[in-house]
Amino acid sequence: MKKSLLSLLFLLTSLTVFAHLGNISGTVFDKATNLPLKGVTVQLTNQGKATVTNDLGQYRFEDLVASKYKIELSHVSFTSQIIEITVVDNQTSFVKTTLSNTNIELSEVVISSERAHDQQLISSMDIKLRPITNSQEILRMVPGLFIGQHAGGGKAEQIFLRGFDLDHGTDIRLTVDGMPVNMVSHAHGQGYADLHFVIPELVKGVDFKKGPYNAEKGNFTTAGWVDFRTKDALDHSFVKLEAGQYDSFRAVAGIDLLGKTGRDKNQSAYITSEYSFSNSYFDNPQHFNRVNIVGKYHGHLAANTNLTLTGFTFYSKWNHSGQVPDRAYESGQIGFFGSIDPSEGGETSRTNFNAQFVTVTASNFVIKNQAFYSNYNFELYSNFTFFLKDSINGDQIRQKEKRNLYGYNGSISKETYLGKMRWTTTLGAQFRHDLTNKTELSHTKDRITTLERYQLGDINELNAGVYADELVQVTDQFTVNVGVRIDYFHNQYKDLLAQPVDSKHASDAIVSPKLNFYYTFNPRLQLYLNSGKGFHSNDTRVVVPQGGKQILPAAYGSDLGMIFKPFPKMLINAAAWYLWLQQEFVYVGDAGVIEPSGKSKRQGLDLSVRYQLTDILYADIDISSAKPRALGEAAGMNYLPLAPLFSSTGGLALQMKNGINGSLRYRYMANRPANEDNSIVAKGYFVSDLQLNYTKSKYNLGLSIQNILNTKWKETQFDTESRLKNETTPVEEIHFTPGTPFFARVSWTLFF
């Protein structure tokens, strides 16, 4: 009895103590836009507690003893601040802070266990240190990622990463503000991802992660994912004019619609437009035209609810010189920048609407809702084999589609404390529905005459997914992330060439678990172990004939890595990784056939180093090596064609206080096999670029030079069997698209 009374007395005393504790609640704003800042690290310096701001720039510390506290706020490229605040019993102390932009100081970057799974230290710095010159350059900000253009600038780039020839996006998930870029069951290839509707000047940041380790990311997340975040507000209205070699011209204008009046109400709205024209460096003039228009509104529906509305529209039309065989160039039949079929080219457009709602409830639930719609049109004329199949008219093909895409992303998350452990629980649901009209593959001549339709049909593809994610900060040093997602696919194909018209459907589902560990020894060293299962879907024209079986090939991966600051001004990220892929069926859009491929494995090493040489000079280097192999094949016959084996990028970035800034960069891709037995080799290249700016408050002058050494290089290469018009037998060899020669442009930007 006596023990029971003592226990009750102790419990009542504890409750009394806790009843008199206080709280700190704060919001952090960007001084330039007066909009909330997400991802700011907030530390109670004398308590060892830390957190990060949510989507509304908010943070909160609970159950604090009445006293004075120091709070340190830090964010990459913003001036750090230390503020003092007094906590009073039974009260919540509110604080509002604004952070100002500044040059990056690597010494201020802290490796934290807070939200370790979401840390993106590399991309946050690189976006500030490397001036963006075009939409293609955005992808190159991902360490180890290479791109190649082989259809005149208007077609989506070919992507290479972690021992993958990713084609145009088959094994990498690309999004813009959470809206999908990849197109499923596309006329040209599965996962086709065209980013040309993005205006480079509007890119605020690039988030990425290599491997299938994030429960929120679904289809195509095998090699990794990349999300581009566009600006919610413009610091200034601006007009930018560019002119360069090869009849290249570009004009961009962005207008801040609400100005200071909007910022005072935490609202912003802008409209931006872009026009580009170029004949490019090919012997066959490109006549490349692109038009982009973007409008965006960001504001409050209520005190704790943000609304973001974005509209994009984009149109592009071009000619291109296509891929040319080595023998045609080496024999002198054409020049290095020549063409076999000068009538190749294309036309594409995309219009997007994106609505995002973020609400933080009184009990600190973060609720996100996003609805999006895209109308997409695509028409491409290509000729890869010349006169192999049709010795009279040639082998030109047309790939064409019209698409409507509807989708939704939603999630609810909450942070809770159980003892000293902090649990962040997230539940989410995602949905996308793709409807294409008359997806076509046809044999054509001169982009005018249709000789034969190989395929013509309507595609109806639905993907619904749910996921659960738990991030547990076990101690101040140790964090565990556990997640799982379930995806369901329903595919239907209506064959319009069949007599009578035939319509079939199939469906399947896949479960993808994730498990990640992070241990932060101190603010200079963190080790992590990522593991997870991902997948990419297959084309509906594969799924339906297979009856929905074996059409969601799994990918199992793991990363063992570290983030390390050996010196205050040096940051290192290194990882050893492994990825195993299950058997799959591949739809070859250029031929309209299905090619089965077996199991494969890839393993390698990634290294990224950032070093601040002086207050104004920064150096960086990324090195990636991979060993990709097909399983079940004889040694020497198990190479994966075009998969990169070794690559490196790097350079110097300059940020001077007098307004001079810029970068000198290189990229290197080593030789790699072009076929399964490595008897045909895709030659490597080394190319360097220069960007130099003079920036003042009212204007910016810029000089951009691609390939400053005027290297003759092959940007994309393929092992292809083809026949030229004067040949009697076909030849198998490298077919290539030449890379950019020395290409200089100047720009002038006016801010107002």
TrEMBL record:
Specify the protein's topology with respect to the membrane. Multi-pass membrane protein
Q: Where is it mainly found?
A: membrane
Among Pfam families, the record links this protein to: CarbopepD_reg_2, Plug, TonB_dep_Rec_b-barrel
Entry annotated with the keyword Transferase: no
Q: Where in the cell is it found?
A: Cell outer membrane
Keywords from the UniProt entry: Cell outer membrane, Membrane, Receptor, Signal, TonB box, Transmembrane, Transmembrane beta strand, Transport
Repressor as a keyword of this entry, yes or no, is: no
Domain (TonB-dependent receptor-like beta-barrel) spans 309-708
Q: Which residues form the TonB-dependent receptor plug domain?
A: 120-224
The family line of this record is: Belongs to the TonB-dependent receptor family.
Q: Report the PANTHER family cross-referenced here.
A: BLL6948 PROTEIN, TONB-DEPENDENT OUTER MEMBRANE RECEPTOR
Q: What is this protein called?
A: TonB-dependent receptor
Q: Where is the organism placed in the taxonomic lineage, from the top? A: Bacteria, Pseudomonadati, Bacteroidota, Cytophagia, Cytophagales
